[in-house]
Amino acid sequence: MSADLEFENLVKLYYGDLYRFGLSLTGSEADAADLTQETFYIWANKGHQLQKAASVKAWLFTTLHREFLKSCRRRNRFSNELIDERTEDFSNVPADCAERVDSQTLLRILGEIAEDFRAPLVLYYMEDLSYKEIADVLALPLGTVQSRIARAKIHLLHRLSETNLPLDHSK
Amino acid sequence: MNTREAKEILLLYRGRIDDSDPQFHAALDYAKGDPELGKWLQEQTKCYDLIRAKLRGFEPPLGLSEKIVRRRPIPFPRDWSRIGQLAATILISASVTMLLMKWSERRHLAVAGAQEILVTGEVLDMTCYIAYNFSGLDHAECARVCIKNGAPVGIKAQDGKVYLLTGQPGESVNAQLADYAAKTVTIKGRQSMRDGFAQLQVEEIRKL
């Protein structure tokens, strides 16, 4: 297969997932598209250095995440929201909160979560990656990743349930 | 294991994706014998699926994949003959750069003495404009990315004349102009000509 065709196939295979990952991290369609383009640009220049073909997807996600963090540093734009105290209270996590929340609200609430917690949470929800693979993408220890996902998930569900109007109020 | 411990473990359980993950096996077995925990797990898994579906429902903008493929940089050649060619190209480029450095002082003087003018027109990504005749709103996003990434930037005046936009020696104007790609602006600057090319050394940018 020619290098051009190989590149084209790789783009077709992963650009949607990368764009959605970028969108969930940035909350901006333009920034997500820029991050996706930048990721493939870096791949075209450095992808041949990757030894294992099986790690391509993880490499692309790692690169996009790294570029996202760089752009945050450049713009000095890091979310200041902390994960709230209720994250210890996992026994009372509201499970019915996602039904009436639209995608844009979900995106907005994700954007309020601190970057360190947002990236693992987004990978947890969006990609069929094992916890070990998520840890590899983010270059974090497995235990840290699982702890951050759990805390961020509880925080997200509580925020979604606060955002949700009860049915009789929403009429 | 009690219910609370099982919940703590199963909070991260995503259904099918985690079925083969041994960390969940004991808690899943425990849930089979606890109907209330089983119901909680079912609700959590449904909630997970809903959030996942919403996040995966976002579609990339039309044409993004084609744009990525079109803008792919030329891969670095790894065979030695090509590396030799590249080395020769670098040597030639270095020589040309040295010549340009010698001429730069003359050039700077020429620009310093150039006429100050105002030009109103569309901000162009010069590479796409000259190579493919791309301009206008249809090409705005591509032009913005190209200019942001350092491609030469220009302006097409209302009389059709195109100027290459430059900054002060050693300074780029790309960052200031990227967001004006395909938009109409007025630029105050010093006009000069070299070998048939018109350039405008930017002093001030005014958005209309």
Summarize the structure.
Chain A is mainly α and 171 residues long. In chain A, 69% of the residues lie in helices and 0% in strands. In chain B, strand 4 (184-194) and strand 5 form a beta hairpin.
What does this structure look like?
- The complex is a heterodimer of chains A (171) and B (208).
- Chain A is built from eight helices and no strands.
- The longest helix of chain A has 24 residues.
- Chain A is globular.
- Chain A starts with a helix and ends with a helix.
- Chain B has 208 residues and is α+β, with helices and mostly antiparallel strands.
- A five-stranded mixed barrel of chain B has the order 1-2-3-5-4.
- In chain B, β2 and β3 form a beta hairpin.
- In chain B, α1 crosses α2.
- Chain B starts with a helix and ends with a strand.
- Classes of the chains: A mainly alpha (171), B alpha+beta (208).
- At the A-B interface, α1, α2, α4, α5 and α7 of A face α1, α3 and α4 of B.
The end-to-end distance of chain A, rounded to whole angstroms, is: 57 Å
Strand content of chain B: 15-25%
Strand content of chain A: under 5%
* Number of helices in the DSSP assignment of chain A: 8
- Inertia-based shape of chain A: globular
Oligomer: heterodimer
